């Protein structure tokens, strides 16, 4: 019998087939080519009613990776809540294996998100960056719980830019000056940030979506973790919640090899260009935008978000 490869071994074996994949439109949304080619199988996925979906707009993602909109953070919080704060249980495997990335497809022998889900029994925690209109209908038909995490546009864009620089399977980001226009036009993987955050916001009541803000999580992690706990119908002691707050601090997670994606080989994730877990701050955008760029972005933001009324904060 052939030895089953670990996730890292599978990536090492497939790394010569990995490249900066181009984007292809799926129902008007640009997705990385391997995802677009397999989208019908993704769309046909039928979750169990007990499955939980964690959704965010990317700041980049590929190879089962999440990025910095708070997705990795939220995944770790949820896993710890489901395991009563047991840190060792949550080190059983890398985040990408514990919580499969629904739509990701990579060259064999790297397992796709669907492959990983097929090996797991419900209830499962699943990650996606898909805009709400591309989420498989089974999640809504089966009334699955969905947690959505949003981050203010400027910080989200800065984080996405740095992730695209270090992730050698994402499209080449080009210079910062041009990247701003790509972001505003929705010409990045997973499409428009504006459409993404508005889509889940508009459906949050109808579809029982817990809509969280990265900035709120940074400001008061204990409060937001308790919100997640209640949404999941769990009851944990205050001591356990405090322990989870500590375990999911940026400092601790950055040193956790099961959560910081250092297990991805350098030719694919070059942490010397930009670490996967870079800063985790609110307001870092001020170090990247010039005054004229900020004004241009703000004017476009006002047009695109005019009727949304979503309470984003660019500082806390």
Automatic annotation (TrEMBL):
Does the record's keyword annotation contain Cytoplasm? yes
Q: Which InterPro entries match?
A: P-loop_NTPase (IPR027417), Sulfotransferase_dom (IPR000863)
Query: What EC number(s) does this enzyme carry?
Result: 2.8.2.-
> Keyword annotations for this protein?
Catecholamine metabolism, Cytoplasm, Transferase
Naming one, the record's GO cellular component terms include: cytoplasm
Q: Locate the Sulfotransferase domain: which residues?
A: 50-307
Q: Which residues form a coiled coil?
A: none
Q: Does the keyword Transferase apply?
A: yes
- The protein depicted here goes by the name Sulfotransferase
